[in-house]
Each structure stands twice: as C-alpha cells, then as structure tokens.
Amino acid sequence: MDYHKLFCNIPKPFAFLDLDQLNENIRTVKSICRNKAVRIASKSLRCVPVIQYLLQTGSPFQGIMCYTASEALFLSKNGLDDLLVAYPVWDEAMIHSVACAVKEGKTIILMVDCDEHVERIASIAHREKVVLPVCLDMDLSVSFPMLHFGVYRSPLSTLDAFLQVAKTIHESRSVRLDGVMGYEAQVAGVGEQTPYQPLKNLLIRLLKKHSVRRCSRIRKEWIDALSQEGLTPRFINGGGTGSLSETAKEETVTEITVGSAFYSPTLFDHYRNLHYQPAAGFALEITRKPRSDVYTCTGGGYIASGAAGSDRLPRPFLPKGASLVKMEGAGEVQTPVRLKSKLHLGDPIFFRHAKAGELCEHFNELIVVSNGAIVDRFPTYRGEGACFL
Length: 389
Hints:
This protein is an alpha/beta fold. Helices cover 30% and strands 25% of the residues. The protein is built from eleven helices and 19 strands. The strands form three sheets. Strands 1, 12, 13, 14, 15, 16, 17, 18 and 19 form a nine-stranded mixed sheet that branches. A hairpin with a 2-residue loop joins strand 7 and strand 8 (147-149). The two termini are 35 Å apart. The mean pLDDT is 93.
C-alpha cells in the first residue's frame, strides 16, 4: 500500500491503522491460541472501535483486560462486558462505582493479591449489598542470586501465601473468587533477539526456557491445590503476546491475554518466533532539510514507558532506510531523520511506536485504511476525552 499517496491530503501529524495488516494479525493469533479463549488487553489498543472490531470477529476473543477501574467503567458504558481490572484498586469511591455497576448486571472483576485488598473490597461490597467477583494474582517471576527475572507485582510467590488469600476470599460473603491470573512477564515481555547482543540474547533464551517450564508447573500445582480446597475459578488467565505459543500449550490455562500482537509495535520485533505485521503507526511532516541526507520532521517525541533506552524510541520505517539521529532521537518539537532517498518539504515520514497502545495517548483518532483507501476514522480514548493514567 502506498501510504505516501494515500495520505497526501491528511494534515500531519496523524496516526493510522491498517485494517488489512490488523486482520492478518488476528488470523495469526487465532491460529496460535489453539482452544484457548483470548482476553483482549485494552491498554495495548486504547480505542473502543478497535476493541469492538476484534470482538466482532468472534471466537476465541471474549472479555477484556483493563488497566484501571475507571477504564473498565468507561468501557462498560460503551456496551462492553466481562471486564477484568488487571491491577489492584484501592480507592473507595472507585470500588463503590464498580459495585454499583455489578449491581446493575455488569461483570467487572477486581484484582487482589493480599488480605487487605480482599477485606477492603468486601467491606464496600457489603455496604452495597452485592457480591463482587475478584481475581487472585499469583507471582510467576523467577529469583536467582543477584537476579530477579520478572516484574515486581504480586507478593504471592509461595503456595501457602496464595492459599491464605484464597481462604480469605472463600470465607467472605461479599466477594467470590472468579478467576486466577499469572503473568509470566519475563517470557511475554522480554525479547531474546536484540541486535548486536548475542551473549545477552543467549542468556535470556535460557532464562525464558527455564521460566516456561517453571510457570507451567507452578500454575498447575497451585490450581490443583485450589481445587482440593473446593475452589474452582471461572477462568485461569495467563500469558501475553510474547508468550502466546508457550502459554497456549498449558492445559491449566483457560484464557490468554493478547494486546500488542494486533498493532505489532517495535518492541516485538526482537522475538525469535513472533511474526506479526505492523498495523498501526504515525506520520510526521518534513519541515526542514539541514543536510543533504537529513530531514527534520515536526514533533515525534512519543517515547514509550519502561526502563529508558533506545528501544523505547519510535522508529521510522517508511521510506525504507530511514533512521533516527542518535544524538537527538525523537524530540518534543522536532525529530531529525537520516535518509538517502530524495524527499521534499511537506512529505511524510512514517513511524512505528515502541509500545502498542501508548501511541493512542498522543492522537485523537486512528485513520483506518484498507485495500488502498481510507475507510473510517476511529476515535481513541484521548479523542473521546478519556484519560485513565
């Protein structure tokens, strides 16, 4: 598709979504996930029409993983349901709002990983005379001497601690155990094919191989232990885009969370076994030419979250051969790009964001293209006046 010609009359900067590439990624996810349900990670999309589009393609997509309770309530008001809030909510007013939504028949599941979470949610639910569904978050990180391989989230790193919180949930009349979640971030969120780092890549591959076996074993042992206590959660959630093929093989897991696969940002270029198409990106306008091989664009400083590094920068991908200037990177008001191709002032340079959904935090809409034509415009969360974090 000739993006330059297609977008010639669109004011820059703008963000776009290639529906043909998105559909290819949908097919890839469906082919990998086997018989598992797929819960859509909204943080990687941040656009209601895109979420609705995925759900409308049918099985195996069902349910949404949200990143805040306020986002879950927003999506609920937009007609979406089965909303799992991936991170604990402590704010009393927000839990109260969730309780009111559940009383009205909505399914919003809150995350817990300690007795304090359970007790706070239960006390509010008791006042509202409603039983709130909760999901128990297990820690699947791996700790070695001098190395923590994973993320710091749930404190439930032992079976005893896990069962203790499960017991607290079971003994309450105002909450019920609806699901269990275990996110193997060290497998799903870490690439093992970073250019020019062969020793680091080898180490990561070994650590990931160990983690995959360990996560599968722990997940089965802990869920079996729950069953022995008479507790049978509705769903067992695991994985992410980077671990989809491995997590899909686990019999214990009933659903896998997927988000980044649909847009395919640059951070997922460094995985050996991932083959997704770049479906979303943004365009900047060339407004200066300070050197014969340097074109300077207006804007572009859309840096991804996480540990600061060059991998968090957006990357120019069209025209081919374009690269950032290392000393400047992507700037708040201008971004210089090295490129030998002959371009002109006013021409676009197309970029991909390092992380999926964060692209939508910078634009009010995604211009949707398919079969060589602009077919729609999807408002992002920002375009709908929504900001949750």
